[in-house]
Amino acid sequence: MNEVLVTGGAGYIGSHVVQQLVTRGEHVVVVDNLSTGFREAVRGAELIVGNVGDVDLVSRVLATHTVDAVLHFAAHTVVPESVSDPLKYYGNNTCNTRNLLACCADAGVDKLIFSSTAAVYGVTASGIADEDTPTLPINPYGSSKLMSETMLRDHSATGAMRHVILRYFNVAGCDPQGRIGHSTPQATLLIKVACEHAVGKRASLSIFGTDYDTPDGTGIRDYIHVEDLAAAHLRSLDHLRAGGESLTLNCGYGHGYSVREVIDSVQRLGGRRLNVIELPRRAGDTPMLIARSTRLKQTLDWQPQYDDLDFIVGTALSWERQLARASARAVPVA
Ligand code: UD1
Known about the structure:
The chain has helices at 12-23, 55-64, 79-84, 86-107, 140-157, 190-198, 226-241, 259-270, 294-300, 309-330, and strands at residues 3-7, 27-32, 46-49, 67-72, 111-117, 128-129, 162-168, 170-172, 205-208, 220-221, 223-225, 247-251, 257-258, 276-279, 288-291. The protein is of the alpha/beta class. It has a 7-stranded parallel β-sheet, with helices on both faces. It has a 4-stranded mixed β-sheet with strand order 6-15-10-13. The model has no long low-confidence stretch (mean pLDDT 96).
């Protein structure tokens, strides 16, 4: 029996992938230290609480399970925090990935899918990135992921492993059936933050920059629904199991929306006007970042199911309402 090891499987993206894997009958073991993940988000899989950089723990997991492939999500992902505390990012994202690869090598695990990011591209001249666009990250988060990509390619070049590197663009939305969602506290991502404001968890929403050279002056991003992204992981796993070669693939829809378009959608679906504050540009932001994702579609025969901003926002909003109801219930009645 093949088992899949998912690191960071209790987190936002990892838990959606675990759910799809379990739904199709895979046996899944999750290693997650629950620093930003949630025990209840791991549905139908074994959860081992611990650090992915802990060589003894991961070696034990690989010795006691019949793991044929690893999906590696565990990472810190907050860009501004990576600027203020870079060593935390190089430690958790880069050094721990090195340890994980060493454990895989020792245990003979030869297939790995790696969560990378559009942040490896930095600021591109055209705002559109294909996989051959030069990688020039502008923050430690992007650098920490790019260093892991390099390690992985070098390791695979020895013949020890084949990999798929997935470079995520702006991941958003939640399980349309509302079983799991995006629960990370102190979120900074636009759709999450806007939905928190729509359900009354925040008093306002800031727009960081209204003077970009874009049609409405605000930043444009390629928002991809988390379920479509999760499906790309399952396709990657099938590709590697079928003997496919190592790949690096952008994960986005190939078109984008501005901050104002996102706000319009949240207002329309949330049924209330948001209190929007226009602020200067945020340091490190690029005007536009859109994926060229033809390689993903062609090599893995991936077809998006949820390429619709209102659908993405609708699922994010209903999850936020669930969280708000749960926290209201948790408040003791005086
Ligand atoms: C960044 C990273 C991405 C990473 C993600 C998670 C880059 C190029 N991208 O995405 O790889 O996975 O962070 O940390 O580094 N905005 C507002 N108000 C807000 C929040 C955001 O106006 O309150 C705007 C931003 O200026 C930007 C857009 O919304 O134009 C999206 O921002 P955000 O959701 O934070 O994601 P990125 O910074 O694009």
